Amino acid sequence: MSADVVLCPGGPMLLRGTHVVADEDGVEHTTSRPVSAVCRCGRSAARPWCDGTHKVLPEELRP
Ligand code: FES
Prior knowledge:
Elements (H helix, E strand, L loop, with lengths): L4 E3 L5 E4 L3 E3 L5 E3 L4 E4 L25
The site of FE2/S2 (inorganic) cluster has 12 residues, from loops.
């Protein structure tokens, strides 16, 4: 059995399957992919989704 929520060290939270994610403004977003990546660094331009920005952050700013 594989987890349906996975925290990636220094990166996003992966959600497997359908979930409803509320962003910081309370707006709800429903996942539409088999695996969705939720930003944990707070720097993505596509929040609540990860856009890969965490990869260019200094280590101390990564989640
Ligand atoms: S975790 Fe990937 S952009 Fe924030």
